[in-house]
Tetratricopeptide repeat protein (Candidatus Methylospira mobilis), 715 residues
Amino acid sequence: MNRSGKILMFFLALAAQQTHASGDGCDLWCGEYPNAYFITPANDSRGNLGLVLEDQGIVHYAPKAVPFHYDEFAGAPGAGEPATQNPNDFASLAAGLGVAANSVQEAGARLAGEHFGRCLTDNAQAVDSLLKSLQSSNLPIQDKTLLAGERLRFAGLCEKSLEVYKPLQVSDAAKPYARYLEAAAAFYAGQYDRAAALFQSLSADAKPGWVQETSLYMLGRVALNHAQVRYDGWSELNAETIDRTALGKAASAFNAYLKAFPQGRYADSAKGLFRKIHWLSADGAALTADYQAWATKIRPGVAGQALLDFINETESKSNPVNAPVDALWSAPLLAMQHITASWRPGDDGALQQKTLVGVDAVNAHRSQFADAGLEALWSYLALAHRYWVAGDYDGVIQQTAADAATGKLSNIAYSRRTLRGLALTALQRWPEAEAHWQSLLKTVEHPGQKIQTQWLLALTWSQQGRLDDIYARDSTAGNSDIRDYFIHAGKPELLESLLKREDLPSHSRSLAYFTLMNQFVRHRDFKAASAILSAHPASGYALARDMLAPLAWAGQKGEYACPSFSELLAAIQQTPAAAQRLNCMGDFSRTQNWDYSLDVIADENVSDEPRHRWHDLADYGLPFKNKPVDAFGDKSGRKIYSSLDYYMDVINQSGKVASEDMAYALHRAMSCFASSGNNHCGDQNIPKEQRGAWFKRLKSEFKDSRWAKEQKYYW
């Protein structure tokens, strides 16, 4: 195995160790940047790491869309799903030891709940370990039953582990187990002094075996958790938040355990927890040395969860956004994560000069990358600095002119080719950019690279107003997801043509249909909407989440009667200024949530959309702003209408309006601002004085109407 492979495999072997106490319980909810399929500062650091690991054959991605999620590699568990042992694994053990079935079921349910900190380690694996020890012991069965039942009693209770604790009445031979359970319950309850005293006694007095070894190991765990009692997970790591004395005790305890049990059942975990000790000590050099020290203990074959744990740990512990890079150069992969993160623009769009890693620093550490077999990565980082930081697009083009685009491309090589195309795009050298993407599409084999290139080609066409090229029958960017995305920007003529395309998926035609109807109605082009509805009945189309349900609106009866949607469309064309019909169109927009733009770009569960949000050109560091597209208004000059616009049209009519219709329009217009004072019927900014005038008018001119009687405020 070459050196680069060894270093990568060392990282994976490192992650495979048991590090239950070192996890921070933080995944997607902490925030994640969407990942393009090339190495870029705009990616999540874990995504960039995954791309490099794929070049080394460690992971394999097969994304169906970009951005991709860094944990979607073959063999990986679902995102955010911890690798927990099935409670059924210990259920049979507990039953064999005589524990009541309801106790086992309740314990399993608690362990399956959400836990953090030390409570993460009160899991099925921990319970299973004790039960197996009891099963293999020579203790009387009644002792085994009591001890197993006590462990399941506080399983998953954490802080409440000692609330109903009672000393167990067991034989002398079983008392070490009983004392261990008291110590474990004290640990999970956060009573560290009590736990430490009990574990210390057991490690010294118990006979050699499971209790003694586990107690010696737990001394380190107790001290490590004690060191963090003032740390909330977000504050700085300093003397005010971390007890350095307790950290020292943890290190001493783990060293003592490893000396006594160098090949013990917790040896890997104890070694791994030194990483957390060094992290809590804010000792970046020692933490990096920990990673390097494991290079001599490389093992092939790493489970997906172990690899995912490693990828997540590099993000949470090496802190690529804020940690100083000086301590990371000896670990090039960690340095790469930090370097690219330092080139990520801040919220104001500007580079953060204070943390930015300059090209001189990158060049000065070429040897570390070369020694790790990652000189190609170093070369790419130097090129990426020219693109992302210096904005030297001509230089990027010149530097990549000799790059070969033949044969299978690694992710690093593909990233270089991508920067070349983006540099051409930045300079608006459109024919060359298009030719570059077309040529690259003939070369790339990896599905992620192919989709990324198709997307960049589609963006190039879109920037030139050439959406027709995306939907051409022989389009090289004809990926169905890409086509679905650009439907929201399509002009009416294009979308109408898509309705007749039998070669397109029914979902794509339904998206085009929805966009046509939604935009025609919102632009008040009722004639065009009626024509579409007549030529293409809504029953022939379907989208998830009932997105087409508004087209079957049955109207409303009772308080304020309105006809069905199709009847309303026909009627309002005959008398566009009729107050009742304007009010009804306002009610349609309001009740069907058509007051705001609905960017329906994918027929999928809404919770999945952020994970696969397509990038726009501005996300690739290009000097183009993502301008809102109004393909319908651009042609007709019509503005977009919301329900408040319809109500205000009635209010502002100078002709005679039925009192019932005027009172309803005033009531609805004011209700748009309930109860916060913010408009939730559009984006109009109506001064409070104007709303007050509406209120006064309703209460005076139409005081006998039900709407005046119901209206108490104008917010």
